[in-house]
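#onboarding

Welcome to the new folks! Below is a worked example of what a typical request in this channel looks like: someone posts a single protein sequence, and someone else replies with the predicted structure as tokens. Don't worry about understanding the tokens yet, we'll cover that in week two.

Example request:
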Amino acid sequence: MASACGSGKCPIDALKLGVCADVLANLLNLKLGSPPVQPCCSLINGLVDVEAAVCLCTAIKANILGINLNVPVSLSLLLNACNHKLPSGFQCP
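Example response:
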């Protein structure tokens, strides 16, 4: 389980975050209905917000998700879809 203070590191193998690609693609294309967020969100649900943000940053910057993105917007969309918040002043490492 993640610590309450957060480590600022991603405890998840970034390659597993590839499941977030479909979620992000649906969010960016503004498809009607709710995108299936479960596989992505279930990976980051046990994390504090800063760890979730670091994990998704890593995946976005490594282009694991397979699309070129505006990192701050993409990060915020994914975190919001999974009921996480972007920590105040957070910058992708």
